[in-house]
User: Fold these one by one.
Assistant:
Number 1:
Amino acid sequence: MIHSEKKWLTTLLICIFAGGIGGHRFYTGHMKIGVIQLLTFGGLGIWVLIDLIMIALGKFKDSDGGIIKNLSSIEKVEKHSDALMQQQLEIAEKESKPEYRFPKINKNAYDFINPFLRERIITKGFLGVDIDIDNEWVVDKFFNPYLSEGKDLPEQENTLLDALSYHPLEEYEADEIIDMDIGINKFCYDGCLYQFANDNKDDIINLLEMDEDHDDWAEYENKFGFFGEGIYHKDYFDSVLGKDKRLRAEIKKLLIEKSIKITVSDIDAHLQYQNRDEIKQTCEKMYNDGEISFAGNSRYFVLEE
């Protein structure tokens, strides 16, 4: 099935409000039919009513034969995967390189990764904001246990190991067994994230499908800890803000107790925080907010005299 590039909701709304003059037909590339509907006021309303029903049922096609429908999360990723696959086939044919078939998300793969996604979003607070971060997590969680022992990854059809892995087109045959160069097929992984967000919508803030011009996007964009497109646990922004406030209070308390200029590394050691970069960023923010003072030598942070 070929999915149209035209948006289902846009087509539906145009049909409702401008169907009588063939607006939805012009939008979907049916120019001649659009003119006929324009001159006949949508076939006296009967024709446009039939079109409206077909659009609502997801059976209306554009001029290229593509189905215009409200895609599910899995259908969306399959659409992207099909487009990427076609692109890779064209490259392979043009450059005489082996083709690589991008696997699609399937229920077994999703069922396999679902509990790990749940565990990670509870502990981390977000998923999908940076493909490199998630790629490192997937490799470490699922692949490294095999690679560290020098074992080949098992060939498991319809599992996460197949569905989320990819090989660079230039270096691998289509059916080559996975080796050391591993990563995420982003389209399949995104499909899992879409489905995970839908299945847990009461607990998830889903910015993957939210337009950046949407009012809610602007609201979250201004929140402390916002990283951009992705899915967030509903309590993430409150918890990260609370964590920041607690860390600021601990740093300020330490500087008051010591009454000396202390380096970021020493602050980290005293607090046993084990995250020097986060301590440094927090101290810089506290300095900019006027909570503490900064001495130039080796970036010492102290309270104002």
Number 2:
Amino acid sequence: MYHFYVDDYRFQKLIKNPEDLLNTGCRYATEINPTVSLFHPVALVLESIFWKRWVNRAWQQMGIMTSVDINIPTQFEPYCFLGVPREWFSFSTRGYSDRLDNLHAEFAMCQRFSLAPKITFMVFGGGQAAKQLCDKFAEDGWVYVPDFMEINRGRIDSNRLTKVVDRVIIKKSTKVTTNG
């Protein structure tokens, strides 16, 4: 499984060559997450959303199961789900230990958008505080996924991580589109 809550330069090549991810044997990925800040003009935000959805769609056509990234400043919420079918049920975001309230807001945003009976809300990283929050709301679909630093420091067994991810892998055939 791959996530892209990293510096943008690390995934820029995938915009030109989305098939490079397939060549790794990847079965599941979050959308790429281009950096969008409070100070970006809407035009750049829309461009970022287009590219993440375009790459996501390409991966789906290659058989890679995906999750829609919703890690975006709240003032851009009206654009967050462009190109995403209302039936979509798998969402992901980056956890930040000092911004746990954002996770509640993002989960609520997904619930307002999705027509699915239950959504999966994956939180990548954020440390022990984010993990405890996800555990508290696990019955509502919250899933904590440790970031690579936790795994590299030996805090998380990578085999356990694979089991966590396999538990939430998307089995539905709904596709993300690029035509909003």
Number 3:
Amino acid sequence: MVLTTYTTPQRVANLMQFSSNFSGTVLEAVQDEIVKVEARIDNVLHESWRIVQVENEYHNIVPAHLHDFTFGPGWKISLNRSNLVTSLTNIEDLDTGLGDKIEIWDGNSYVDYLTARTQGRNNDYWVDAKEGVLYVRNVFFGNRGRRARITYRTNSGSRTLINDSGDLSASATSVTVDGTTNFPLNGVVKIEDEYVSYTGKTSTTLTGLGRGEYNTTGAIHVDNVAITFVPGDIEQVAALMAGVALVRSDDRSVSFPESASDNVSLTDKSRDWENKIERILNDRKPVIVYSR
């Protein structure tokens, strides 16, 4: 199953006023379309509210860059955290099972430090996840450039994990998490396929939970599952963009009610959605100032 971040297939079905949710191969197609929409939103806005994997980011390691850290000599590599998305700040815990790699040239080939070396401040490498910095030691030198090749996952910081060994029940009204630093005082978060509103927070708790928002279903969520805050306008534009894509890919002539006394074709409706999409994205686009 493909887990989406910015919206859900249920929200898209509700937008299109379908009488039932998507299922089977149609559900899979909608999920794939939402993932594409998420990437387009990130690229347009240069901002992201999801985990993004940066693949094969190359860095030079030269003797002149040697630093004498408190734990010994080593090399500092500042990870770019994506050239397109400027809001990505936190490096996810490196996990070889999810494709992460720290590959360092040893004179003959790249060696993956995640599997062949030891992590730790006094060992071969260490990652400062908050600052997006990788420190490496015991590096072979030669004439080759691009000595470091790194694949890692990063996020905007508006994300935390459930921290409750008893799991989160389908009716719970508060949840203990790893931290809430980058979350607003109240809002709506996404936990797997459920949207959950909350009215307050402490440093490690979201309180006043409203379960099954946006016509999703309250469900049990186990410990260490991710909780992500996605702004309401981003959730809306993702659903609208997915809806437009579905209309364009479907050659059926379908009408559905705009109100109790009015029917509007999906084609006409999609034009209205496109106008809303343009307004939301324009409001969100960063202002870039060039100095001379």
Number 4:
Amino acid sequence: MRLCADTDFRGPGAELNMLGIYFVDGGQHLEHRVFVDHSQPKCFSRVTYKGALQGKDAHSVWIGDCLIREAADGTDTYELNRNLVLTEGAKADSVPNLEIENGEIEGAGHAPRQAASTTSSSSPDEPRRSRGRGPSPRRARLLRRADQPDWRPRGGRPPHGNRRGRAGQVP
């Protein structure tokens, strides 16, 4: 199944907070395609998608495209995808893409792939232990972390140590 969500800012100062959660079971394929088109000045966007996968041949694909057009001065954007692979045979792919046509932006938090999209897995005996006696300490930490917000409020520090600045500046 493929789900597409496209956003085009129609006026200056617009805001977008897009949240997605998904579960993929054995034999299922789920693809999310997100496109955020910053075409107006001083717009703000946060896109956060989180997924959990289990079972043989469970497969998710997340493609996050963000375009900051030349007219979009003062843009502040961040996209994030996190996946929790619960069993062997499940696979999660993330493809964050950022295109910047304007150097006068507040922040573009599309960090390198390691920071913008993460996939965690558990050991082979984790699912058995979880079904029998509740989550292991490691799984409980992963689940607690998966429940925390990943976007920063306007003017706050970016998550995961990303740095703000103009395009082309070296932090």
